[in-house]
Design brief:
This protein is 78% helix and 2% strand. The protein is mostly helical. Helix 2 packs antiparallel against helix 3. The radius of gyration is 30 Å and the shape is elongated.
Length: 285
């Protein structure tokens, strides 16, 4: 058989082979997702052990946020590296393929395993987080957990508006719940749109606060302004925390994709290596 016939046979064999070994990708993806769930559950236990409602114990809020972000990156790198390595090590050996093409396919297998695990984790982590949250709430008590689920966050600020002194004599005794419900509706509508009362609603709410608490009109207006500022600060703090968490998750995903691709290249090199007694010599990359 001449060289041209051998080359043709190799080309035919190469063309019949698939560039992607999906069983290996699925195996690596499942391993990555499972390890991610394990590490996240372990991290949740560490986090709950580190925080405390007492001011003189536990880590600070800023330290907890930074530690959580760093831990997410560590979880992404560790779990993705293991899954990528398995995807590269378990894939089918390609015959007659150039070493550069093999290297590209190995890294692609690691990336696909990471992507597959990300899709799995997107649904599994959501249900697991909800389960852990419900379990923590059940430990407090069914009555308190039910109240927490049904509480409107705006009601807290409305409570602050109508908070009076212990001996205050209120003049709005006709139907106090009606006034409170009216302000709650105004609050919800205002903060849903412009994150504040308009001028007319603000003056009207100050009048109701003055009538309910016995305060002067000026003091009632100051209280309204103070509570609105507190509400805006809470909303802004929530927004910033969500943005920081998104950035940490993005970093964890990017580092995880890189670790999976690199580990798959290493696993593929060992997959195509040669054994000399008990020593495995990797394929030259």
């Amino acid at each position: 058989m001449d060289d041209r016939s051998a080359t043709a046979i190799v080309d035919v064999q190469t063309g019949l082979q698939s560039g992607v070994c999906w069983p290996a990708v699925a195996a690596g993806g499942v391993a990555t997702a499972a390890l991610t769930l394990l590490l996240v559950a372990f991290g949740a236990g560490l986090g709950l052990s580190a925080i405390s409602p007492w001011s003189d114990s536990g880590v600070s809020a800023s330290t907890f946020k930074i530690a959580t972000g760093i831990y997410l990156i560590i979880v992404g790198v560790m779990s993705s590296a293991v899954g990528g390595y398995l995807a590269g090590r378990l894939r089918t050996k390609w015959i007659g393929v150039h070493s550069n093409e093999v290297f590209f396919r190995d890294t692609a297998h690691g990336f696909l395993a990471w992507a597959f695990a990300t899709l799995i984790s997107a649904t599994a982590l959501a249900s697991t987080t909800a389960y852990l949250a419900n379990g923590a709430a059940a430990g407090i008590g069914s009555a308190s957990s039910q109240a927490a689920r049904s509480l409107n966050p705006s009601e807290v600020y409305v409570d602050r508006l109508f908070r009076g002194a212990p001996a205050a004599q209120t003049t709005d005794n006709a139907n106090p719940n009606q006034s409170r419900a009216e302000v709650l509706r105004l609050w919800t509508a205002g903060f849903r749109g412009d994150d504040d009362f308009n001028a007319g609603d603000r003056a009207y709410v100050a009048q109701l606060v003055a009538a309910r608490t016995g305060m002067s009109q000026a003091d009632a207006e100051k209280r309204v302004d103070q509570v609105v500022i507190e509400a805006k600060a809470a909303v802004d703090n929530t927004r910033r925390n969500a943005a920081h968490l998104s950035f940490w998750l993005t970093a964890a995903l990017l580092f995880g994709a890189f670790a999976a691709s690199l580990a798959a290249a290493e696993g593929g090199a060992l997959r195509d290596g040669t054994w000399n007694d008990r020593i495995l010599t990797p394929r030259v990359i």
